[in-house]
Amino acid sequence: MKYDEVVLAVVWNLLFAFMHMADYDLLLKFMVVGDAGVGKSSLLVRFADGTFVDNYLCTIGVDFRIRRMFLDGRHLKVNVWDLSGNPRFSLNALARAAYSGIKGVLVIFDMTDRETYNNVLHWIEEVRPRRDQEMCMILIGNKADLSHRRVVSYEEAASLAQRMDMKYLETSVKTQQNVELAFETLAQEVMRQYFPRRRDDVKQRESCFCLGGATGSMATSRMLVIGA
């Protein structure tokens, strides 16, 4: 390949990357954790794809979904990882890789299953050693549509969340209750920590691709990666 062809290829790759990064302001990496069967995968599919799948197969290892959102005047690209509730997967190499860069966590239990609630502290401690001071977590009580079968009261779960310095929401994948709100709330908490908006701040943070030194600025992207 000739020299000018190499330069052209480099320029094209940079332009291509810029075009794909410039269409969102923030890239957020989240994770959902909790016991097997609490509805983590179903919650994630409902959020990302807008569909409800009953009897969703349990995740083996990790899975992930991507969803774009517009929140508080910013275009977000949300990458959500689903960690298997099977304990033998929680500490394997794949799980450890999935934890890398996580800035927000949904800790989920099934409000009709006391054991999954009792294991909430386990999942919080599973995440805490891997998180920095600014990682945000919220507690989710899932299967709110089965309120007639609930064994964990709202007050009990909300009290636990308060003690752990977390917000608490109840969701239903089946009826879509609070599914969107759960991820919006987590995104807002993360943005408040990492990307505070000052009253006089009307500009996005910028990152630049430069060719040819300081005077060769080629393009400017508004993208900020949170949890890369």
Task: Give a written overview of the molecule.
- The chain crosses the membrane at residues 6-22.
- Keywords: Membrane, Nucleotide-binding, Transmembrane, Transmembrane helix.
- Pfam families: Ras (PF00071).
- InterPro entries: P-loop_NTPase (IPR027417), Small_GTP-bd (IPR005225), Small_GTPase (IPR001806).
- This protein is of the alpha/beta class and 228 residues long.
- It has a single domain, classed as Rossmann fold (3-Layer(aba) Sandwich).
- 35% of the residues lie in helices and 25% in strands.
- It has 8 helices and 9 strands.
- It has helices at residues 3-21, 40-49, 87-90, 93-99, 114-118, 120-127, 154-163, 179-194, and strands spanning 26-33, 62-71, 74-83, 104-110, 136-142, 167-170, 207-210, 217-221, 224-226.
- The strands form 2 sheets. Strands 1, 2, 3, 4, 5, 6 and 9 form a 7-stranded mixed beta sheet that branches. Strands 7-8 form a two-stranded antiparallel sheet.
- A hairpin with a 6-residue loop joins strand 7 (207-210) and strand 8.
- The relative contact order is 0.18.
- Mean pLDDT is 76; it is low at 198-223.
